[in-house]
Amino acid sequence: CGICTPGFLMSAKALLDHNPKPTEGEIRYALAGNLCRCTGYDKIVRAVTDAAQTLASGAGKGPEGRLGSGPSASEQTEQFLQGQEVK
Predict the structure, then answer these.
(1) Which DSSP symbol is given to 38?
(2) Closest of 76, 72, 29 to residue 48, by C-alpha
(3) Distance between CA atoms of residues 24 and 28, nearest Å
(4) pLDDT tens for residues 14-46?
(5) pTM over the 0.90 mark
(6) What domains are there in the chain, each with its CATH number?
(7) Helix (H, G, I), strand (E, B), or coil: what is residue 18?
(8) What DSSP letter does each residue of 44-83 carry, written as one string?
(9) Which of 1, 4, 29, 61 could form a disulfide with 36 if both were Cys (CB 3.0 to 4.6 A apart)?
(10) Please, what is the angle between helix 42-57 and helix 24-31, to 10°?
């Protein structure tokens, strides 16, 4: 249903910022404060594991070293405010 998603995302981000290569147990511990009535948590744990592996490999990083390949959100906002096409 998505109600728990923001909490899981914030917990996962905090974990990966602090520990870029967590074990499954560390992931489960970091996510333990979030309640989801729709899943058995396995797919969520797997998603955090996949995210950690992707971040560790550097995959998805653009030329400036940040994730993604297009302009940053602030650059897109500036383009929009100047009436330019935002890509």
Answers:
(1) S
(2) 29
(3) 6
(4) 999 999 999 999 999 999 999 999 888 999 999
(5) no
(6) 5-81 (1.10.150.120)
(7) helix
(8) HHHHHHHHHHHHHHTTTB-TTSSBBSS--HHHHHHHHHTT
(9) 4
(10) 120
Task: Give the pair of three-digit tokens for residue 21.
Answer: 């290569």
Helix or strand (DSSP H, E) at 42: helix 42-57
The b-or-e profile of 8-30 (16+ CB within 10 A means b, else e) is beebbeebbeeeeebeeeebeeb
Token readout for 14 is 């905090």
Which residues, at least 6 apart from 15, have a Cβ–Cβ distance to it below 8 Å? 22, 26, 27, 30, 31, 48
**Contact present, 27 and 41 (Cβ < 8 Å):** no
One-letter amino acid identity for 65?
A: G
